[in-house]
Amino acid sequence: MSHTVLNCGYVPLVDCAPLVIAKELGFAGEEGLALNLVRQPSWSALRDMLALGHLDAAQMLSPMPVAMSIGLGGLPARVDTLMVLSVNGTVFGVSNDVALDIGAVQFGDAKALLSALSFRKGTALRVGVPFHYSMHRLLLSLWTSSAPDLQIEEITVPPPRMADAVADGFVDAFWVGEPWGSVAVGQDVAQLMMTGKDVWQFAPEKVLAARHDWVEAHRDAAAQLMRAVYKASAWLDAKKNTPLAVEILARSEHLSMSPDLIDPALSGDIVTKRNTAPTPVGRFLQFHKHAATFPWRSQAAWIASQLGADAVGIEKAKACFRADLYRQNLASIGADMPGASEKEEGALHFETAVASSRGHMILSPDAFFDGRTYDFS
Amino acid sequence: MNQDLRILVVEPDPERVRAIFDALKDAGWSDVKALGHMSALDRTVREFAPDIVLIDLANPDRDTLEHISHATETSKRAVALFVDETDDILTQAALSAGVSAYVVDGLKMERIKSVLETAIARFKIMRQMQSELDAAKQALEDRKTIDRAKGILMRQRGFSEDDAYNLLRKTAMSQNRKVIDVAHALVTAAELLS
C-alpha cells in the first residue's frame, strides 16, 4: 500500500506530542500517511517554510494563522487552522531576584501576583516571550493591562534560551511553553509563579495549520492528517499512556532531552522551585478532553480582537478556524461535535454540559482571571 | 553606486562572519558590523541602526529580529527579504543558500539586491565548505572504524589486511548493508566481548 507523504513542521516543545505520537504509534500510517516531521529552528522559519510551500502542514502558535490571515507580521498568506493541537500548557516564571522582591505569593493567583509585581520598585519588568504572535504574549498583555502601574517590556527569546536569558539578567521574567520553564527551574535560575490557565482557563495554545489553497487541493490528505492527530490526542489523554509518551518525546529525534524535564507538562505535576515538591496542576496541558481539539471560531475571533483587528479582520479570522472541516472529517471516527461552532469566550466557570451530536458533551471552564466575557456572535 | 548601506551580520561562527565580511567589503560596503550573541541583538539594532540585517535562515534569533520589527516605529519596519514577492528568483536563491535578510529601513529593492546577491554567493560557498568539511570528518571517522575492524580480524583470525577487508565487504554485500555498518558492528561486538 502506498502512503501519501506529508511534510509537517514543528518546533520541539512538549506540546508537539500529538504530531510525534501520530507518527510514532502508527496513527498516521493507519490513515495511509507517511508523516514526515520536520523540526524548525524558529517560528519565523516555520511560517516561511509553510507559506512558501516547503511544508504541507505545521504546528503553529494559535495566533499565527490568525495574524497571517489578517495580513499581520511578515508574510501575509491564507493559512487555515484545521484543529487545535493543545490547550493551555504554558508557565509564567520570574528570576530569583524578582521572586525575593515580591515575597510570598500563592502559586497560580494571577491577581495577587499582579499587585505584588506592581509594588516592585524600579524599572520596567522585562518579560521573555517566544514570539510576538503567541498566546503567551496575548495573555501577558491582557493580564498586565489591568495594572496600569506595571511597566512591561516584551522581549522575544527563543524558548531553548529562556533559562540562559534569565541567568544572564537579560530578562526578569518569562512566559514560555514546557519544558523550558522546568529547565529554568532545574537550573535554579527562576521560580514559576503561575500557569497560563490562571489567566485564561481554556486558551488554545498550538494549532495544526496548513495553507488554505493546499487544504482545498488536498482534501483527503488533510482529512487523514486530522484523523491521525485526533486519535493521537485521545491516546495522549489516557493517564496510563503518559510514561510511554514521555519516553517517546525524550528521544533524540524529537525533543532530545531528559524525560525528567518532559514529565511535568504531561503529568501536570509542576515543580515551581528547585528542590521543592511538585504542585499538582489540574488541566495543565490538554490534548483531547472537553473538545480540546475543536477549532472554535470564537477563539479565532478573540485572538483577532486582541491583535487589534476590526470587524472585517474578525470575520476573516473566524473563517480560518475550520470548524466546518473538523465536522466533515472527524464525525466518521466518532468525534462528538458541539451544537455550535462559536461560544461566548470566558462564560464558563465550571465544567458544563452542552448539546452535541451525541447528546451532550462536557466543556471545560474557560473563564478569564478578571471575569470578563467576549461575545463575537 | 550607493555603497553607504549599514549592514549587520548576525552569525555566531567567526569563520563565517569573516567570509561574509570580506565578500561585502570587496564589493564596496565598508559599514559592516557583526554580532554573534543574541542578548545584544535588540540593543545593537537600535544603536547601530542598520539598513539591512543578514542572518542564517536556521538561526533561532530570527524570531527576536521579527519582534524588533514590531517594536520599532512603523517607518522602520523590518521585512523578511526573501519573502518579498517582487523577486521569486532572489527568494529561491536566498532559501537555497540559507540566507535571510531583514530590511530595517524602507529601502528600495534595487539597493538591497546587490548586497543580498553578494551575501548569498558567500553563504553558498560557506555552506558547501561546511558540508565538505563534515563529509571529510565523517570519512575520517569511517576510515578509523574500518581500520579497527580490519585489525580485529587480522589479530583474531590471522588474516592479511586485504583478506580482512574483503571479508568485511563480502559480509556487507550478502547482508545488504554498508561496509562501515558491518565494521561498526564488529568493533562494538569486540568491545563487549573483550
From TrEMBL, chain A:
Q: Does the keyword Nucleotide-binding apply?
A: yes
Q: Name one GO cellular component term.
A: endomembrane system
The places in or outside the cell where this protein is found are: Endomembrane system
Q: Which UniProt keywords apply?
A: ATP-binding, Cell inner membrane, Cell membrane, Membrane, Nucleotide-binding, Transport
Main localization (coarse): membrane
The protein's GO terms of the molecular function aspect are: ATP binding
How is this protein named in the record? Nitrate transport ATP-binding protein
Source organism of this protein record: Roseobacter denitrificans (strain ATCC 33942 / OCh 114) (Erythrobacter sp. (strain OCh 114))
* Taxonomic classification: Bacteria, Pseudomonadati, Pseudomonadota, Alphaproteobacteria, Rhodobacterales
From TrEMBL, chain B:
State the Pfam families in the record: ANTAR
Instruction: Give residue numbers for the modification (4-aspartylphosphate).
Output: 56
List the keywords (alphabetical). Phosphoprotein
An example of a GO molecular function for this protein is: RNA binding
Query: Which residue intervals define the domain ANTAR in the entry?
Result: 126-187
Tell me which SUPFAM superfamilies the record gives: CheY-like
Where the record annotates domain Response regulatory, the positions are: 6-120
What biological-process terms (Gene Ontology) are attached? phosphorelay signal transduction system
Supply the name of the protein: Response regulator NasT
